[in-house]
Amino acid sequence: MVSYVFPPPPVAALPIKGSDALFPVRRIFCVGRNYAEHAIEMGSDPTREPPFYFTKPADSVVINGADMPYPSVTKSLHHEMELVVAIGRGGRNIATADALSHVWGYCAGLDMTRRDIQNEAKKTGRPWDMGKGFDKSAPMGLLVPAAGVNPAKGKIELKVNGKVTQTSDLSKLIWSVPEVIANLSELVELAPGDLIMTGTPEGVAAVVRGDVLEGIVEGVGEIHTKIT
């Protein structure tokens, strides 16, 4: 019998629409600057340079409808609305043509960002971890099974206090979902439970305590959280 020096932490998990089962979260990978307009607004070239990634802890997930606490040590908390891909079958060097067969499901999610901390890290050439991977930085909606979902097109939109701040279409992804899965699997061996946040469109902006965020990914689902 295995003995631990203290009880292991609970498994982070996403609820599944229409089911009592939960999807255990292993790792969260995030694709940076994967919409051309967002790359431009962040001061970058929107060409198809190889995708790059950063990560968030599994326990940074905030389940749909739960409040998100405003994080410490920032005066510039930004929203980034995204399609999230949930991996159900792992692999390394996955072919683009086979990539979608590794997907268990999808959900709508928010990559919340301490922008001032991230920008300072960029200036000094340091990692983005504390700007991106902080506590409760990944609100996510209900997970839906992949069958019947087309991740190649569909409206992606976010409203803050009822006003649209981000709106685009999944067809505008610089690197498509299959391409991202294939590329990421060259860098790490993907495993069941891995989540991939696929990038955000233009319109990212700061939020404050009391703001209500409501997002939608057409054909996938919704995300709702309040900053407290």
Structure description:
- With 228 residues, this protein is an alpha+beta fold.
- 14% of the residues lie in helices and 31% in strands.
- It contains four helices and 17 strands.
- The strands form five sheets. It has a six-stranded mixed beta sheet with strand order 4-3-14-7-8-11, covered by helices on one side. Strands 13-12-16-17 form a four-stranded antiparallel beta sheet, with no helix packed on it. It has a three-stranded antiparallel beta sheet with strand order 9-6-15.
- The longest helix is centred in the C-terminal third of the chain and has 11 residues, at 177-187.
- It is globular.
- The termini are far apart.
- The mean pLDDT is 95.
Question: Topology, pairings included?
Answer:
Blueprint: E1 13-15, E2 22-24, E3 28-31, H1 36-41, E4 53-56, E5 61-63, E6 77-78, E7 81-87, E8 103-110, E9 113-114, H2 115-124, H3 129-132, E10 138-140, E11 144-145, E12 155-160, E13 163-169, H4 177-187, E14 195-197, E15 206-207, E16 212-217, E17 221-226
Parallel strand pairs: 3-14, 5-10
Antiparallel strand pairs: 1-2, 3-4, 6-9, 6-15, 7-8, 7-14, 8-11, 12-13, 12-16, 16-17
